[in-house]
Amino acid sequence: MSTTFWADLRGGEFSQGYVVADGIRTRYLHAGRAGQPPLIFLHGTGGHAECWSRNLIAHGAHFDTWAIDMIGHGYTDKPAQPYEIDIYVEHLRAFMDERGFARAHLSGESLGGWVAARFALRYPARVARLVLNTTGGATMDPAVMQRIKTLTMAAVTEPEWNTVKARLEWLMANPATVTDDLIACRQAIYRAPGMPEAMPHILCLQEPEIRQRNNLTEAEWRAIAAPTLVLWTDKDPTAAAEVGERLAGLIPEAQFALMKGCGHWPQFEDPETFNALHLRFLKG
Fold first, then answer.
1. What is d(CA 230, CA 42) in angstroms, rounded to the nearest whole number?
2. Which of 23, 101, 104, 265 has the highest CB neighbour number within 10 Å of its CB?
3. CA distance 79 to 73
4. If you ran DSSP here, which 8-state letter would residue 34 be given?
5. The pairing of beta strand 64-68 with beta strand 104-109
6. Could you tell me which of 102, 171, 90, 135 has the C-alpha nearest to residue 254?
7. Biggest alpha carbon–alpha carbon distance for the chain
């Protein structure tokens, strides 16, 4: 297993850049070429595009692949407002408009899956295939919500090596999966101007009243029309695999896949397995 982003990415061509989407300067990582079917990767709460570093090149061989820092996250702009799901959905729509994508595959992990699912409901004609990877939007567990708030605020308020490391290790089935490169990357992001102010806005979805009004109802899960893969793990710290199975049972004709030995970032923890099953689904 590689230990640096460079080792993850050096096997192919990729780029980093920025576009302005509805006034929001938006950072991306990109692999693939124009003319291939567009694919957009969406990260989780407090995350950034590097969570897809072990998947970008493999998918760029088949898709015009983009991993973005969502609004308020990473090196993307951070307007002062609570980031409820509709804010992320409209930022994604603006990014697609700026790139000229009438339609794209969407693959979201955690918060990113929540955003992708809501996007698929609002803009069904713009979603080709949908992957919901240990997705949010279906649970209301006070202990998990508090854990996310505590670990994240500790890491962003005092972005020392150990506080950032603890936040990342919570995501993984095996804490040793967290590389020094990943810790240093997130530490730099959490030390960047504007992040301490933005994080409470990001964490608004961990407040029960706000989370409840943003969660999808059973009727909404049933209304998703895009071909969907619900991907879960046997060691996810946010929700049991039964949650994923339930969602796959609600979404019409959805497929369900369980990755073993992984926590909340299966795409990073076991990229070989993830890339194989993810590409098989996206390629139909």
1. 15
2. 265
3. 10
4. B
5. unpaired
6. 135
7. 45
- Give the residue carrying structure tokens 């804490």: 175
- Give the 3-state secondary structure of residue 133: strand
Cβ–Cβ under 8 Å, residues 27 and 76: yes
Neighbours of 158 (CB within 10 A): 12
Q: Phi, psi at residue 43, to the nearest 5°?
A: -85, -175
Q: Please give the Cα distance from 156 to 151 (Å, whole number).
A: 9
Helix or strand (DSSP H, E) at 68? strand 64-68
Tokens 């019409």 belong to residue: 252
| Short-list 82, 108, 95, CA closest to 197 | 82
The CATH class for the domain spanning 5-139+218-282 reads alpha beta
**Domain boundaries defined on the chain:** 5-139+218-282
User: Any residues with CB less than 8 A from the CB of 120 and at least 6 apart, and which?
Assistant: 106, 127, 130, 224, 225, 226, 228
- Cβ neighbourhood burial of 153 (10 Å; 0-12, 13-18, 19+): middle
Per-residue pLDDT tens listing for the chain (284 residues): 558 999 999 989 999 999 999 999 999 999 999 999 999 999 999 999 999 999 999 999 999 999 999 999 999 999 999 999 999 999 999 999 999 999 999 999 999 999 999 999 999 999 999 999 999 999 999 999 999 999 999 999 999 999 999 999 999 999 999 999 999 999 999 999 999 999 999 999 999 999 999 999 999 999 999 999 999 999 999 999 999 999 999 999 999 999 999 999 999 999 999 999 999 999 99
pTM score of the predicted model:
0.98
CA torsion, points 217, 205, 271, 234, in degrees to nearest 10?
-60
